[in-house]
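Weekly modeling sync, notes
Attendees: AB, CL, MP (scribe)

Item 1: holo prediction request
CL wants a bound-state model with 3,4-dihydroxyphenylalanine before deciding which constructs to order. AB pointed out that an apo prediction alone won't tell us much about the pocket. Agreed to run with the ligand included and paste results into these notes for async review.

Input as submitted:
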Amino acid sequence: MKEKIEKIQAEINAYTIENTANLEAFRIQFIGSKGSVKELFNDLKAVPNEEKRAIGQLLNALRIEAEDKYNLFKAQLETTASATSKLDFSRPGDNNEIGAHHPLSLVRSEIISIFSKIGYSVSEGPEIEDDWHNFSALNFAPEHPARDMQDTFFIEKGENEMALRTHTSSVQVRVMENSTPPIRTISPGRVYRNEAISARAHCFFHQVEGLYIDKNVSFADLKQTLLYFAKELFGEKAQIRLRPSYFPFTEPSAEVDVSCSICNAKGCNVCKYSGWLEILGCGMVDPNVLEASGIDSTVYSGFAFGMGVERITQLKYKVNDLRLYSENDVRFLKQFKAGI
Ligand code: DAH
C-alpha cells in the first residue's frame, strides 16, 4: 500500500499542467470520483487495523497535495485568461515615431548625388590632421594667421603636433598624394575652428571640398561645373557670379555667389537686398600645391572648390541659427521627415 501511495505521489509531482485541458485530465486522473487517489481510499478497507491510522494519514496528505496542485493551477490559468480578455484588440495601435534624416545629411547627400552625375567620386580623410595636410602642403606660409591657436584646435604639443582639421581641403592633398590624374572627387566632412558658439559661428561645422585634376583643365571648366551645380541645387533659373578672392592653395581664386532663390534675385533680407548669396570659394589649384602632392604641374592643372554644408542648408531650409544643427531638439529635427 505504501509503495502505491509513493508511486502516485511521484506521478502527481511529475504531471505538467499548461492549459485547461491538462488541468481537467489531472482532476480526472487523481481527484475525480474514479481517480487514483479515490481508489486508494477504497483500498484502505483491506488494510489491517493496526496500520489503518498511519496509512490513512499518508493518504490524506496525498489527497491534499493533489487538490492543492489542482487549485493552484486552476487559479493561475484563470488569471491569465482574464488578463487576455481585458485586452481591447479593436483599439487603434500607438504609432511608432519614424525618425528623420538630419538636414545636414540631406543636403550632403544631395551635393554628393549632383556631383556623382558628372563623374565625381567621394573621398574622405581624418579629422585629426597633421600640419602638412592641413596647412603646409596647401601653400600656407609659416606665419599665416590660420595657423594661430586662436583659429585652430591643436591637440598635441611637441614634435608630433596634430590639430583638428580646419577645412576639408586637407583631403585634396591626401587624394593627390595617393592617386594619379585624372582626379574627380568631392570630400564631405566635419571641420573644427576655435570660435565662440553663436547663431552665426560654431566650433565645428561641415564642408564639401571638390577637386578636379587633369590635362588642360581651365577656369572655364570650373565656372561651368559650378553653374551646373547651382542649377541642380537651386533650380534651373539659378545664376552664379564669381568675385576675385584669395586662398593660399588656389591661384587665381574666387568667391562664388548664387542668385537669391528666396526672392528670385529681387532683393530680400536674406540676400541683404543684393540679390546674391555667397555659397563657396574656389580657384585653380596652385602649382605649388600640385608639386607638394607629387603631381607634375607642367603636365596637369586643376580646380578646387569648398563649400559650407550649414550655409547651403540655411539657404535651402531657411535655418539661420547654427546652434540648431547640433542641439538635437526633436521639434527641429522632426520637420525634415519629408526629406527621407
Ligand atoms: N578651405 C576653404 C575654407 O575653409 C574653402 C575653399 C576655398 C576650398 C577655395 C577650396 C577653394 O578648395 O579652392 O574656407
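Recorded for review: The mean pLDDT is 92.
Action items: CL to compare against the apo run; MP to circulate these notes.
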